[in-house]
Specification:
The protein is an alpha+beta fold and about 160 residues long. The protein has helices at about 5, 10-15, 20-30, 35-45, 50-65, 90-100, 130-140, 150-155; strands spanning about 75-80, 85-90, 110-115, 125-130, 160-164. Strand 3 (about 110-115) and strand 4 form a beta hairpin. The longest helix is centred in the middle third of the chain and has 18 residues, at about 50-65. The model has no long low-confidence stretch (mean pLDDT about 90).
């Protein structure tokens, strides 16, 4: 599979010479991932920031599509094991949706996006609010209050799993 085929969302936004980029990346490929490569290029001023964010988005989707996840069976509250959190300076989800409709727009907006698989195997997206992030940090620390205001939304979304 070529780099262009591996990063379909990125390909929607980029007019890069994929052959040249692929050859240049091959030199670094044993050391860093392609999204990391583009991030370094952006830091050097050779690539717009939204392109490496799109690459991270595509890499997360591919990882989740190809991953095998085991949902918890023990009692308690658990974070969905497939959850992948991405911090962006661009609204990647809206950009990709618009691009598939023929509108290529770069939308600047900071957000934290969670990409995950639900119990039915469907890929889901959930933008994490500040309140939800606070709750997830408490879950990670093991100090989760069950009456937290964000709990119903995260359990309904399938990001927090309640096992009895």
């Amino acid at each position: 599979m070529t780099l262009k085929e591996s990063f379909p969302s990125l390909a929607l936004f980029s007019d890069m010479d994929w052959n040249a980029v692929s050859k240049e990346y091959e030199v670094s490929s044993k050391i860093i991932t392609f999204p990391e490569y583009l991030e370094i290029k952006a830091e050097e001023g050779d690539c717009p920031q939204h392109l490496f964010e799109l690459a991270y988005f595509d890499a997360a989707l591919k990882s989740i599509q190809e991953g095998e996840f085991f949902f918890p069976e023990g009692p308690g509250l658990h974070l969905n094991p497939s959850a992948c959190f991405l911090s962006f300076d661009h609204d990647i989800l809206a950009m990709v949706k618009e691009a598939h409709e023929g509108n290529i727009n770069v939308i600047e907006r900071q957000n934290v996006l969670c990409v995950y698989v639900d119990h039915e195997g469907e890929i889901r997206f959930h933008e994490i609010s500040v309140t939800e992030l606070e709750l997830l940090q408490k879950l990670e620390a093991g100090t989760l209050p069950e009456n937290h205001e964000a709990m119903p939304g995260l359990t309904q979304a399938g990001l927090i799993l309640s096992v009895n």
